[in-house]
Amino acid sequence: MRMIKAKEKVGWGTMKTYLLLKRFLDIVLSIVALVVLSPIFLVVSILDRIGDNKGPLFYRQVRIGLNGKSFKIIKFRSMVVNADERLRANPELYQEYIKNSYKLPEGRDPRITSLGHFLRKTSVDEIPQFINVLKGEMALIGPRPVVEEELSEYGKRVDKLLSVKPGAMGYWQASGRSNIGYPQRCEIELFYVDHASLSFDIKIFFKNIISIFRSEGAY
C-alpha cells in the first residue's frame, strides 16, 4: 500500500512540474510570438478595410475549454460579418457543415472572403490565438477547442477531453487537420490526453510547423 501511495505522489509531482513548465513556456512563447508577428496585425487590419473583406479585425467564437468552461477564441476574421448567423439561417448549408465534421468542404463555404482564403490556407488566421494562450484560456499545445455541438462526438469520454486545456496547436492538426473528421478525430485528440508530456508537446509543435508550411488540411 505504501508503494502505491509513493508512486501516486511521484506521479502527481511529475505532472505538476510538467504543467508549471508548460504554462511558463506558454507565457514566454506567446509574448515573443505576439511581438515578432505584430506587423501582421497591422497589415491584416489595413486589408480588412478593402472590398468584401471589410469588417472587424478579429473573429471571436465561443468554444469549450478546460473543465467545460466556455471562452471566446480569437482569430483574424476570414469570413463576412455575421457568418455564423448566415450559416444557421441556411438549413441545407448547416446540415452539410455538421456532416463534414463541423466545417464546410473546401470551396463550399460562401462566407469566406477573398482575404480569408489566404489567411486560412497559410494558417495566419490562427495567430491571434496567442492572446488566448497568454490569458490562460488555451495552451500552446493541446486538443483543439471545440464548439458546444461537437461535444456530443466524444460521448462518455467528453470529460477526458475537457480535463486538459485546449491548444492552439494539437496532435489532430499535426496529423492532417481538416482532412481528418469525426470519429477519428476523437481518437487522435484523446490519444494526446493520455500521453501528454513535454517531449510529446515538442514533437507536436514541430509537426504543426511542418504542416503549416505544407498547408495540410488548411482551408
Describe the structure.
With 219 residues, this protein is mainly alpha-helical. The chain has ten helices and four strands. It has helices at residues 2-36, 38-47, 83-88, 91-99, 114-121, 129-135, 158-161, 171-175, 184-195, 198-214, and strands at residues 58-64, 70-76, 139-141, 167-169. A two-stranded antiparallel sheet has the order 1-2. Strands 3-4 form a two-stranded parallel sheet. The protein is globular, with a radius of gyration of 18 Å. It starts with a helix and ends in a 5-residue tail after the last helix.
Give a brief outline of the structure.
The chain has 219 residues and is mostly helical. Helices cover 52% and strands 9% of the residues. The chain has ten helices and four strands, in the order H-H-E-E-H-H-H-H-E-H-E-H-H-H.
